[in-house]
Fold this protein.
Amino acid sequence: MTNSVKDWPLWEVFVRSRRGLSHVHVGSLHAPDAEMALRNARDVYTRRQEGVSLWVVPSAQIVASEAGQRESFFDPAADKVYRHPTFYDVPEGVEHL
Protein backbone atom coordinates (compact mmCIF):
# COMPACT_ATOMS: atom_id res chain seq x y z
CA MET A 1 0.00 0.00 0.00
CA THR A 2 1.53 3.33 -1.07
CA ASN A 3 1.08 6.65 0.64
CA SER A 4 -0.68 9.40 -1.26
CA VAL A 5 1.00 12.74 -1.80
CA LYS A 6 -1.32 14.24 0.82
CA ASP A 7 0.25 11.94 3.42
CA TRP A 8 3.77 13.21 2.70
CA PRO A 9 5.17 15.91 5.00
CA LEU A 10 4.82 19.55 3.98
CA TRP A 11 8.09 21.41 3.27
CA GLU A 12 8.66 25.17 3.13
CA VAL A 13 10.90 26.32 0.28
CA PHE A 14 13.34 29.25 0.43
CA VAL A 15 15.31 30.50 -2.60
CA ARG A 16 18.29 32.84 -2.75
CA SER A 17 18.12 34.50 -6.15
CA ARG A 18 21.69 35.88 -6.23
CA ARG A 19 24.83 35.72 -4.15
CA GLY A 20 24.76 38.25 -1.33
CA LEU A 21 20.98 38.26 -1.00
CA SER A 22 18.94 36.52 1.68
CA HIS A 23 16.88 33.41 1.12
CA VAL A 24 13.21 34.26 0.59
CA HIS A 25 10.20 32.01 1.23
CA VAL A 26 8.69 31.15 -2.15
CA GLY A 27 6.18 28.45 -1.31
CA SER A 28 5.48 24.97 0.01
CA LEU A 29 5.38 21.44 -1.36
CA HIS A 30 4.78 17.87 -0.22
CA ALA A 31 7.60 15.33 -0.47
CA PRO A 32 8.44 12.03 1.26
CA ASP A 33 11.92 13.13 2.39
CA ALA A 34 14.40 16.03 2.35
CA GLU A 35 16.22 14.90 -0.80
CA MET A 36 13.01 14.65 -2.81
CA ALA A 37 11.80 17.97 -1.37
CA LEU A 38 15.01 19.63 -2.54
CA ARG A 39 14.72 18.13 -6.03
CA ASN A 40 11.04 19.03 -6.33
CA ALA A 41 11.74 22.57 -5.09
CA ARG A 42 14.42 22.94 -7.75
CA ASP A 43 12.01 21.78 -10.45
CA VAL A 44 9.07 23.87 -9.28
CA TYR A 45 10.65 27.10 -8.00
CA THR A 46 13.82 27.54 -10.09
CA ARG A 47 12.72 26.40 -13.56
CA ARG A 48 14.03 29.58 -15.16
CA GLN A 49 17.32 29.58 -13.22
CA GLU A 50 15.97 32.10 -10.68
CA GLY A 51 18.12 30.82 -7.84
CA VAL A 52 21.65 30.07 -6.71
CA SER A 53 20.66 28.32 -3.47
CA LEU A 54 17.66 26.43 -2.10
CA TRP A 55 16.58 25.57 1.43
CA VAL A 56 13.79 23.14 2.27
CA VAL A 57 12.53 23.00 5.84
CA PRO A 58 9.87 20.67 7.25
CA SER A 59 6.85 22.86 8.04
CA ALA A 60 6.35 20.95 11.30
CA GLN A 61 9.78 22.14 12.49
CA ILE A 62 9.05 25.86 12.09
CA VAL A 63 8.23 27.71 15.29
CA ALA A 64 6.73 31.17 14.82
CA SER A 65 5.27 33.95 16.91
CA GLU A 66 1.50 34.42 16.80
CA ALA A 67 0.09 37.45 15.00
CA GLY A 68 -2.41 37.97 17.83
CA GLN A 69 0.41 38.24 20.39
CA ARG A 70 2.30 40.94 18.49
CA GLU A 71 2.19 43.61 21.17
CA SER A 72 3.01 41.41 24.14
CA PHE A 73 5.72 39.54 22.25
CA PHE A 74 7.55 42.55 20.78
CA ASP A 75 6.88 45.19 23.47
CA PRO A 76 9.94 44.37 25.62
CA ALA A 77 12.21 45.72 22.87
CA ALA A 78 10.59 49.17 23.22
CA ASP A 79 11.85 49.39 26.83
CA LYS A 80 15.51 49.36 25.74
CA VAL A 81 16.14 52.94 24.64
CA TYR A 82 19.81 52.25 23.98
CA ARG A 83 18.73 50.25 20.92
CA HIS A 84 17.31 53.34 19.25
CA PRO A 85 19.60 55.63 17.23
CA THR A 86 18.29 58.68 19.09
CA PHE A 87 20.13 57.50 22.21
CA TYR A 88 23.54 58.18 20.64
CA ASP A 89 25.24 61.41 19.61
CA VAL A 90 26.36 61.23 16.00
CA PRO A 91 29.72 62.91 15.43
CA GLU A 92 29.90 65.62 12.78
CA GLY A 93 30.85 64.40 9.35
CA VAL A 94 29.38 60.93 9.79
CA GLU A 95 26.81 60.46 7.04
CA HIS A 96 25.90 56.76 7.15
CA LEU A 97 25.50 54.59 10.22
User: Anything to note?
Assistant: Helices lie at 34-45, 70-74. The beta strands are 10-16, 24-30, 53-58. The two ends are 61 Å apart (CA to CA).
